[in-house]
């Protein structure tokens, strides 16, 4: 799913939907384990044609010209020229090489064989999983804003694409990672309420991934949350998504055109 103003609106609605649950179980701050040291796993060394391929500075040098070094400065790109969030996306991707790589592939469904192989390698990269986990659980931001919200949604989009590739050799690990992130209590004392709501919205999106790709694991997460500080919130998320799917199914039935034999 491409990042768009519509997706941003859905994200806002999702976060708002989780607000009720957060307020129900957040009577006061509780002490939780401090986040791990923000040391990300070293990223695999992707070749220039694999990373930020839209950047003119990553192009091969011409005869007699000075060699060009890969650069990740935001540059005009038809990927985002028509996107109302272009001014947010360009600097965001300029500062996250791996996310930039993902969006390059994500926006190009018609890859050649070599490009598809590179993309599959990227979708099965444990180093990328480690970075996604850290960014979703322990973001550097202390207050939620549009850019950080969109960044985390894009990381979740990466996980969805990784799961949509049915032959992904890391599929079981990705599902386990998603379950772990939902169950992790990453709300330290003193966290800004807007940030709490944003991270709770992320957990809702992650839970929906389990419902779509591993519904039995989603049920297991719901059961595993019992007796923890996250129990009420995860139960609320599960119920909210169930009701939403019922409404969507009902609407789909109501708007479906009659069969050709109907009069």
Model description:
This protein is mainly α. It has one domain. It has helices at residues 5-25, 86-94, 97-106, 113-123, 126-137, 146-164, 171-183, 193-213, 215-224, 231-255. Helix 1 (5-25) crosses helix 10 (231-255) and helix 7 packs parallel to helix 9. The longest helix is centred in the C-terminal third of the chain and has 25 residues, at 231-255. It is globular. The two termini are 37 Å apart. The model is unreliable at 4-21 and 38-77 (pLDDT under 50).
Please write the string of helix (H) and strand (E) elements. HHHHHHHHHH
Largest sheet, strands/sense/barrel: none
Rg (CA only): 20 Å
Q: How much strand?
A: under 5%
The rounded distance between the terminal residues' Cα atoms is 37 Å
Number of contiguous helices: 10
Low-confidence stretches: 4-21, 38-77
- Give the count of structural domains: 1
Quickly give the structural class: mainly alpha
Based on DSSP secondary structure assignment, what is the total number of beta strands? Answer: 0
The overall pLDDT, averaged over residues, is 78
Q: Helix amount, in percent? A: 55-70%
Query: What is the approximate shape?
Result: globular
């Amino acid at each position: 799913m491409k990042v768009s103003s519509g997706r941003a609106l859905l994200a806002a609605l999702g976060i708002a939907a989780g607000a009720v649950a957060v307020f129900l179980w957040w009577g006061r701050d509780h002490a939780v384990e401090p986040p791990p040291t923000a040391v990300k796993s070293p990223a695999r060394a992707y070749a220039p044609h694999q990373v930020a391929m839209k950047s003119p500075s990553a192009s091969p040098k011409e005869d007699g010209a000075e060699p060009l070094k890969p650069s990740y400065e935001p540059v005009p790109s038809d990927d985002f020229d028509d996107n109302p969030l272009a001014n947010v996306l360009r600097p965001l991707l300029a500062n996250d090489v791996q996310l930039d790589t993902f969006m390059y592939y994500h926006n190009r469904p018609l890859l050649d064989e070599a490009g598809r192989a590179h993309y599959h390698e990227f979708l099965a990269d444990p180093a990328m999983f480690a970075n996604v986990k850290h960014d979703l659980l322990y973001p550097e931001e202390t207050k939620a804003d549009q850019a950080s919200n969109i960044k985390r949604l894009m990381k979740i989009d990466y996980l969805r694409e990784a799961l949509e590739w049915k032959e992904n050799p890391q599929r079981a690990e990705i599902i386990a990672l998603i379950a772990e992130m939902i169950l992790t209590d990453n709300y330290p004392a003193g966290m800004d309420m807007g940030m709490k709501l944003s991270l709770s919205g992320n957990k809702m999106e992650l839970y929906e991934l389990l419902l779509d790709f591993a519904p039995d694991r989603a049920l297991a997460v719901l059961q595993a949350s019992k007796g923890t500080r996250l129990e009420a919130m995860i139960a609320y998320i599960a119920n909210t998504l169930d009701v939403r799917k019922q409404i969507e199914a009902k609407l789909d039935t109501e708007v479906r055109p009659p069969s050709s034999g109907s009069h």
